[in-house]
Amino acid sequence: MEIPPTSAVLISTLETICFSHLSYVSRNPRYTCQSYISYAQTLKLLQAALARGPLVVDMVRRRELLTSIVLLAQLPDSITNNQAVHESWRVHLWAAIEYAAASAPAVLDFDHPLEAKLMHSIQVNGTLLAISRRTALPVHPRWLENKRLWYQGVTRPFFHVPSALEKADAALCKEDNALDIEILSHELEQLRLETELGEQPWQSARKLTKLEDVDLDQDIEEHAAVTSLATFDNLYVFTEFVAARRFTTTSQLMLVIECTLLRLLHSARDAGTPIPTSRTIEQIENNAFRLASNICMTSHHISRMQTIGNAMLVQLGLSMARQFFEEHGDQAQMEWCDACLAANGRRLVRIEAALPPSRCRINAIIPGWVAACKYQTSGLRIEAGEAGD
């Protein structure tokens, strides 16, 4: 029986992953070489399958194709990168996003455990990458059905912030941009309000606690740094980890929203065309300060999870907070972030030495998210390279 072209792609993808794993565990150059060969063969099969276009209509085959593309994004850079294409995972991930959006609504089923995980991977990693790239994320309405706990109530803001960033860059490049900035300011305000509303049901899961009353583990590098610093007198304590992660993530998202709004309003004010808004620039800055502080006061809870991904999440949040504090002129908070970033960096090195390699890509998108927290520079335009591309 002839193997369907798309099935051949999936089989070849799985073989590539197996050879890549064998290469890592055995350090045998033969497996490394075979990984390169298998990866190249997979790309050829994938290209041929996608070239069939409308002929690839069978839903099972579409799922196999999408699964293959998602899995290719998980391959280590040592296998996929070459002199022509760096960080190929970005290419594969974006291809998966576009293919999933174009093939919606029924390519992946949220009620199917494996397919739900694949879709979640595309959505979460895709949003992280899209914000870093400042590029609109292709979104199908059914994507809003994501049932993961830390996504409930905030899916629309997450998926639409990348588009707002792209619009902001376009507006700031125009000369007569007052109307564009005013429209986009209202859009950003709506995204912030939706995110705050989505976070409200989780308020009971956190409690602001005095620093001396928080149970900090001195064996965790960041906890030791937090204990030695008195910048933040209180820290957040959570009843469950998902609440801490969600609070951190939504605070990061809202910080991006607020800083983008500040960029627009500063630009309009400097151009002599101030935009009417429901809040003053000072009020927006105060809220951004609160969000950056929330990220700092939550990082100790994320640090309790000894995983590479969570250590990178802490690094992302503290880097963003530090950038805002620099923009806002908060020297003490900047120094607190510097100390905790250094401590978390040491923790990350320790964890990476003790655990298997992680395919988490948060570190790769940190520059773009940090750049999104800049707003003071007059006429600031964030370049693609600065944003992590």
Structural class: mainly alpha
In total, the number of domains comes to: 2
Strand and helix order: HHHHHHHHEHEHHHHH
Low-pLDDT sequence parts: 383-389
Overall number of strands: 2
How do the strands of the widest beta sheet line up side by side? 1-2
Rg, Cα atoms, Å: 22 Å
Span between termini? 44 Å
**Considering DSSP H and I runs of 4 or more, what fraction of the residues is helical?**
55-70%
Residue share in β-strands = under 5%
| Shape by Cα distribution | globular
Count of helix runs: 14
Major sheet characteristics = 2 strands, antiparallel
How much is the average pLDDT? 87
Organism: Neohortaea acidophila
Protein name: Transcription factor domain-containing protein
Task: Describe the protein's topology.
Blueprint: H1 5-26, H2 29-51, H3 59-72, H4 77-80, H5 88-103, H6 113-133, H7 155-172, H8 178-199, E1 206-210, H9 221-228, E2 234-238, H10 241-270, H11 281-302, H12 308-328, H13 331-354, H14 362-371
Antiparallel strand pairs: 1-2
